[in-house]
Please model this.
Amino acid sequence: MSALAYAISFEDAVRAGFEQPFWDGQVTRLLAEAGGGRVVDLGSGDGAVAGMAGESIEEYLALDLSPPADLPHVAHDLRDGLGPVGPAPFDLYLGTYGVASHLDPAELDRLLGDIAAHGRPGSVVALEALGLYSLEWPRLWDTEPGGARALPYRLAQDVMVHPWLPHELAARFERAGLRFTGAIDRTVQFGPKAGEGRYWPGLPHLRPALGALLTGEDERLDEFTQSLPPLPVAPAAAVHQGLAARRRRLVERSGGLSARELAQQLWSLEPATGEGYGHGLLAVGRVA
Model:
């Protein structure tokens, strides 16, 4: 796959208003845990991580098929491992916005092994994958890792992605020589592919409706009160159905709130889970 397939900078009101602040907080926390400020940004895209966490980032390297030219960078395909990043270990090996799911299982294993060999004891490794139990693709919920779980995902072109569960990532971290320390779900309700109908029909268009609220428009409230379509019988279905019920109650009782205040309260319903229910699943570990 060429860099052109990935040459898209997805930006909307939800990313700017909620997801970027999430990442800023995570980068700050992860750097504090790492005890140092050297960061390699794996699959860096536009290099937004370089501007996060205030002054905590002391040295930054963007690693991407098409890295930002105005930042320290190496052009490299992560499917070939960590690549030519120099001999000095980093304090934080970071991959945001689902980058781990752009690798197949064998490629992910290679990257993790390279990081384990390159890092120092205590270096933090934080790679985000796509969550298997996301509302966006219920047809994958009962699949095993491998080809049956891969699906086409539209960026500039279709690229293949592979969602994960935390215990699967934990096993891969440990096998590579990394100590797995936990996982965090990101954007459980408002994944960008929900509502498109490509992976599962009948889902509400929650993300554009939330984005409209953030810009002061409240004409799409019916998206938040819409019932979910039938879902596969699985614990994940109960999580997503429960969130739909809470959204409905919140909107029905939201008289007097401004559009932006309602958006904030809807986002506050996001559960503090780490089971693969979100669009993103941030897996964290340390070099042993």
Remarks:
- DSSP finds seven helices and nine strands in the chain.
- The chain has two domains: 3-191+273-287, 206-269.
- The longest helix spans residues 13-34.
- Residues 21 and 27 are 10 Å apart (CA to CA).
